[in-house]
Amino acid sequence: MKRILSFLKKDAVLTAAWTLAILSMAAVPPSIRYISYLDLHTLGLLFCLMATMAGLQAMGFFHQMGESLLMRIHSLRQLEMLLVLLCFFSSMFITNDVALITFVPFAIELLKMIRREDRLIPVVVLQTIAANLGSMATPIGNPQNLYLYSHYHLGMGAFLRIMLPFALLSLLLILLALLRGKNQPLSFGLSEMQTVSGAAPFCRKSLLSYLLMFLLCLGAVGKWIPIPFLLLAVVCLGLFADRAIFSKVDYSLLITFAGFFIFIGNMKQIPWISSLFQQLITGNELLCSVAVSQVISNVPAALLLSGFTDQGASLLIGTNLGGLGTLIASMASLISYKYVARDFPGLKGKYLAHFTAMNVLFLAILLLAAAAPQSGLLS
Length: 379
Hints:
By secondary structure, the protein is mainly α. The protein has 19 helices and no strands. Helix 8 packs parallel to helix 19 and helix 11 packs antiparallel against helix 12.
């Protein structure tokens, strides 16, 4: 019993999703209709993508790629740019969570090695913002994008037209923030330092398997490959490369999705509740999604609100921008906080203050851009 309570407390979003789902069953008793609530396309694609990323991350692929880039670094500003932009661009393809899990510890270790812990908070905060904003540029960048892309039947062209302007504006803001730092030379060359990870060379068999799995996932996102075929291929390739990767998949996220699907499906079966939600959201999709994200995070916000509006573009923008703001607006942000709190417990308060100030600043600028009619970003 204690283990169950500990698990439920640890994953508050999953607990909330299934609490709502179970409560909704009192109004709409369980039936075979529940199966139709589940977006099996999104769940299957998300599973395959998570398994692929787990494999590449386990073999240190992203970490070693980052280390190879360090050999060309000669100043503190270049180092900070590399650490932050790695998160921005990699999150487009490996998700914001994986980017932060990979490159935040990498940044902390490097800054310790060159004795520049004074730059730790600004760098990690910008890494977190960069991962959350870079991930909005592609359907596979984060879970809510993958879901909304599927739910609203968006093509790649339509998705890019909606999100690319915001990604480009975000990149500009991040570069401006990075250029404020001093361009000091490093006290010694990174090329002369021992590598951070000391990882073994890649296993060619595994690497080829994971890269093929990733290409198949991209094919499914582009709607060229059916999900049943993708699932079969990923399972076979994963077992061939390393069966342990399936134990590293975040199954709690899949179960959370299922809980919200059941809750939303049941709410849509109750006419007065469905009508009330639609009235509250209609015309305010962007601001509603930003506001709800601040409280329950942007992935649940996307799942919840999508059941009551057909304005997919506004919801897509709102839940991505809504990842800025509070520490829980994007659950990925908690990853960075946990690393800082673990290694530098005395900096937790200072980190939260700087994190909140920078997030509010970025959110305000991007919301102004979205609201400006002449910008054309929301057209």
